[in-house]
Amino acid sequence: MTEPLYELAHLGHAELLTPVYDESLAFFTEVYGLDLVHESGGSAYLRAWGDHDLTTLKLTAADRAGLGHVAWRAVSPQALERRVAALEERGTDGEWIDGDFGHGKAYSFIAPSGQRMELYYETEKYRAPVGKASYLPNQPQSSVSRGVGAARIDHINVLADDVPGTRAFMCDTLGFKLREHLIPPGRPEAGAWLSLMNKAHDLAITREPAPGVTGRLHHLAYAVENREDVLRAADIFCELGVEIEFGPAKHSRTQGFFLYVLEPGGNRIEVFSGGFHIFAPDWEPVTWTTEGQGRSTAWGLDVPASFHSHATPVLP
Amino acid sequence: MTEPLYELAHLGHAELLTPVYDESLAFFTEVYGLDLVHESGGSAYLRAWGDHDLTTLKLTAADRAGLGHVAWRAVSPQALERRVAALEERGTDGEWIDGDFGHGKAYSFIAPSGQRMELYYETEKYRAPVGKASYLPNQPQSSVSRGVGAARIDHINVLADDVPGTRAFMCDTLGFKLREHLIPPGRPEAGAWLSLMNKAHDLAITREPAPGVTGRLHHLAYAVENREDVLRAADIFCELGVEIEFGPAKHSRTQGFFLYVLEPGGNRIEVFSGGFHIFAPDWEPVTWTTEGQGRSTAWGLDVPASFHSHATPVLP
Amino acid sequence: MTEPLYELAHLGHAELLTPVYDESLAFFTEVYGLDLVHESGGSAYLRAWGDHDLTTLKLTAADRAGLGHVAWRAVSPQALERRVAALEERGTDGEWIDGDFGHGKAYSFIAPSGQRMELYYETEKYRAPVGKASYLPNQPQSSVSRGVGAARIDHINVLADDVPGTRAFMCDTLGFKLREHLIPPGRPEAGAWLSLMNKAHDLAITREPAPGVTGRLHHLAYAVENREDVLRAADIFCELGVEIEFGPAKHSRTQGFFLYVLEPGGNRIEVFSGGFHIFAPDWEPVTWTTEGQGRSTAWGLDVPASFHSHATPVLP
Amino acid sequence: MTEPLYELAHLGHAELLTPVYDESLAFFTEVYGLDLVHESGGSAYLRAWGDHDLTTLKLTAADRAGLGHVAWRAVSPQALERRVAALEERGTDGEWIDGDFGHGKAYSFIAPSGQRMELYYETEKYRAPVGKASYLPNQPQSSVSRGVGAARIDHINVLADDVPGTRAFMCDTLGFKLREHLIPPGRPEAGAWLSLMNKAHDLAITREPAPGVTGRLHHLAYAVENREDVLRAADIFCELGVEIEFGPAKHSRTQGFFLYVLEPGGNRIEVFSGGFHIFAPDWEPVTWTTEGQGRSTAWGLDVPASFHSHATPVLP
């Protein structure tokens, strides 16, 4: 049998584009509860209190919303080289870049679904200054209860015109494992949920509803510590005037407890908790044949139409 | 740099010995909430509702309590062969055995700390019969609310006369990663917490208080889904007449939310939830220099003396 | 100022009618988690583990679903007499009945909204037999984790053609306090939430959608201990094949965390937790002028159409 | 039978004395999460976000810690007059005072246990200014997540040399209901838990350990919304350098989930959630005959010695 690859460690960071930089920055700091670590060149670098890396979100002023890039951290410099070799062997047209605030050199390429992705290894860890250090030395800093208090970066959901092609690319070249997918009878694969190690998903790939469109973002998710924190977040969003698009409720796939809002720039942001864990190295992907199997959400809550249609960049 | 090894996937199962087989079996099924899958040769094979493997606990009648063995599942047949080669290269005196109910051939050896361990790859997955299947196809069966409803096997804590020697062995030959350890000034290393992938610990190694004694078990832990479930378990233990030794409270190391009882045979059993996750492939082990740093538990609850002295087998 | 009346203590019990007695009884015992205490004359008498009274639900075989009656317990025999006098002074046409399994003589009358109601004082308390007694002597029995494990009777929601008239009757004659009501501009009062002491509601009166129809039940609710228990209940309903109509989510009025299903007979049953408490004796009723003020549910979840149309008995 | 009295509505407010006013004020605002409403005459007036009254805590600079007074709100002006008459009939030596910031005239007297108490009716309700109003009009203001975010005043525990005499006074003159008491065999009554309406306790009276001492405070408690919030509070206290004296754990009496710390002035403060509710108007007081019955806490956690010895004022 082919051995599973454990060469990428985790979702490292994402860059979100926003046409309303100041409003988006206020949302991520005051409402979502991230800390601003650095600001330069039209970009803000942010982190959640439970992130061990210096920064996990780059927010960049742009003429429209969307995903600037998403970056995956390799488990070692050698693994990084091997994954780049695998990409190039497959004919991927990428290039090395010098890195950015918070991380070293990275290999940048375009996924088959059109999103820019980066692989990197060298990273800067967060060192809490006096006054921010946690009483627990195994925690990067004191928890933050500002706004919803997002705790750590968790996963990303991109859209793809060709779901099976994109997931095969991610699995074959980068070692993602297919955990679950949705194949409605007689229709193309509608979604695939992939992960690197023990999570139910680090990357979700769902079907782009607009023909011929590529590279769009469905949502970016940070985790909170438990389901009560997601319920609390719902109240906080309401208190702060942020409209809830969907949730809190439980997904059937991944079993994650979710809550979705749009940040002022239009990108969809999730507050997430839970999700089952996967320990079996030979996990058999779960094939959901219809939305109705297990309902479209676990408890039967209908998915709002916007959840199937809205993505960033918004189409003209 | 040396690359991290991802060759073992998870704690596969443990065998507990008990001098009061019937009482222990009643505890694990009626109180802890496991399902009995099979019984033969003086052993019961049990599983938690969230375990994807057919069985994760073997309970064996014996003249005294303790750990029969603990088994780790490799990520592939090739990884299994490589880890056995590494063990043998280090001079470990092990042997292949035919397997057991629920899994195939295994390599059996004695860890430096004296416990029997097994490595294996071939396993039998649980297939829920009609009436036990979950409405969620990504869950091995319907959840069980009998007793405390333990959800899945989580970690094990063994005692070792030589903590650093044992952890070095586990890390070097098997790819465990050191996450945290406790080194009181001027005293030997008192504990080490190791994991394989994203958990804060799959294996804890703490110091054997009795000189010259080897091979003892401190505790075996199954996880429940959240902290409320641990609080619920405390009530259920009290309702069912099981004395709580320690907890519910929060550990400073691993940040796990815990509750400990002794099963009728005397083995310490934990109900566990949470624990932080580790995604960094270059995690820097956290060195706790005193018990007092961060308290012996996170919120300052004193550790009962029995927690430092009781282990199985009980010393004469 | 008029003094507030504290003459009724709590919702004592309700009688539900069902055309499918066996299926309804199986639902309430196996799914909802009530205990069957007694069965006679085509009726089952049930209780939740946290109810201090012997029985809080009477389930009666009938040709259609609906509310047999709902009973309120007075704080004293004297208060009972005073409330009956107040009813009679208002011209209410009631009568004394001998009582029933679990309670003594009661005054039975028809509310302006058409539901039969009873007032009583003498009740039989539950005395747990050996094996069911809780380890906590202030709890009527050990908690039950069968099915969703409903913990205690909480509130009832009846429909009324004339909401303000019905609530005025309940307040003036029986001492209910108006806590919140919904008066959409230019439309009749759509709902009123009333309570007796510290709860946000013991009784909800919402508008009957069918003209000229009286006496219908919207839902009966038992409480569970926390919001995690409501989330757990959602999974259990799904595992047991019971379709969820609405929730889990948070109501804006009462702030209760809710989950609704229909029992096999068609009566709507809620699993409820939380709700704010009211301590002020001069609470100023909150007037909600539109559904949209605070959304129809707290976090914006739409109310399903069935929630506004379905009630029991079902109209021909 | 004697009818139960419902003439007092709730614990209105408490005045705490502190020898370190600035530090105590910082604790209550920044750590405990109360809002400062007013400051005058050496006193600060504070409120929790869920309090419907303008202020529930008066913090007063003094030469030593302790309870300035505790105030109970009557259900009506008439009930206030009746309770004062009952006090005077019993020979209580009290006097009318003009009121204070937040409430009108009050009757001030010394309880048999030595604490100053007040009865009052006229109160000022909190009206949230723009920017503090909640999105839920039935909530006095937006929730506060600063520090532990105490939600509303809940109960007080005073010490008494003569527990049964004190509770009889409170029950007979003011209508408190005895819910539970602890009478160790052969020893004086060690504690009594009393409430006014549906709570398990508004007032606890426990035995003064020092002979001849009167008027001391054991603790004042504010509630949070659920047990997860108590667990969160434990982390927050640790992060902010506040030592936890006791908990989080579950009391056997009241079943409250608790966490105790000392504020800088030395007064013991609780973060509380839960507790069972009492609806029966003829509740039979639960007599605990030994601490060991149901353990001294529900799950067996030992009570620290300081919890039995420390009170304010601290004895010389």
From TrEMBL, chains A, B, C, D:
SUPFAM superfamilies with a match to the protein in the record: Glyoxalase/Bleomycin resistance protein/Dihydroxybiphenyl dioxygenase
PROSITE patterns per UniProt: VOC
Boundaries of every VOC domain copy: 10-122, 152-274
Pfam family for this entry, one: Glyoxalase
Signal peptide: none
Coiled coil: none
Protein name as it appears in the record: VOC family protein
Organism the protein comes from: Streptomyces prunicolor
Record lineage: Bacteria, Bacillati, Actinomycetota, Actinomycetes, Kitasatosporales
